[in-house]
Amino acid sequence: MITISERDWKIIRDLKPELLNLACEQIFHRIEKLSAGRAGQQH
Asked: How does DSSP classify residue 7?
């Protein structure tokens, strides 16, 4: 099992909100791209 030092864990915890926002932004951009490619198409 991998252990993370207390100091490193605090750094990771501090980065979490920024990294989560970045990941969500990338997902939303991909969804927008897919939606734009389907414009006018029927299911």
From this structure: H
Contact 4, 12 (CB under 8 A): yes
Is residue 14 a contact partner of residue 22, using CB atoms and an 8 Å limit? no
Rounded distance, CA 17 to CA 15, Å?
A: 6
Q: pLDDT 10s per residue in the chain (43 long)?
A: 889 999 999 999 999 999 999 999 999 999 999 988 887 776 6
In whole angstroms, give the CA distance from residue 41 to residue 35. 10
Q: Which two tokens stand for residue 7?
A: 């100091």
